[in-house]
Amino acid sequence: MAKEQTDRTTLDLFADERRPGRPKTNPLSRDEQLRINKRNQLRRDRVNGLRRVELKLNEDAVNALNELATERNVSRSELIEEILLEQLAQNHALKMHQNKNS
């Protein structure tokens, strides 16, 4: 009987053949690996003083942020943080000025 390359029903004929693709080196399923990696990432962020904030923006705002982040060679997240900190500093300075004049 001839061995047909596309025939995968007779597994004994293909037992010694290496299949293409990445070998499985981790005993955990991909879902479990992703969960563990996410947990570790959140732990690293917490140690670095970072907190997660979810923000929904319209597409135009996201596109503008992406363009500006690319121009400044920073991530979109870093850009948003920078913009927020600048705005908070301005707001704080304005309040200080108002309190001084009161």
What would a concise description of this structure say?
The protein has helices at residues 30-47, 59-72, 76-101. By secondary structure, the protein is mainly α.
Task: Describe it.
With 102 residues, the chain is mainly alpha-helical. It has a single domain, classed as Orthogonal Bundle (Arc Repressor Mutant). It contains three helices and no strands. It has helices spanning 30-47, 59-72, 76-101. The relative contact order is 0.04. One of its GO terms (biological process) is regulation of DNA-templated transcription.
Name the shape in a single word.
elongated
Work out the radius of gyration.
27 Å
Number of domains in the coordinates?
A: 1
Mean pLDDT: 84
> What are the low-pLDDT stretches, counting only 5+ consecutive residues below 50?
none
Q: Which bin fits the share of residues in helices? A: 55-70%
- Kindly identify the CATH topology: Arc Repressor Mutant
Helix and strand composition category: mainly alpha
The major beta sheet can be summarized as: none
**Count the helices. How many?**
3
Kindly estimate the percentage of residues that lie in beta strands according to DSSP: under 5%
Distance from N terminus to C terminus (CA atoms, Å) equals 98 Å
Listing every helix as H and every strand as E from the N terminus to the C terminus, the arrangement reads HHH
GO biological process, one term: regulation of DNA-templated transcription
Region (Disordered): 1-29
Protein name: LexA regulated protein
Biased composition (Basic and acidic residues): 1-20
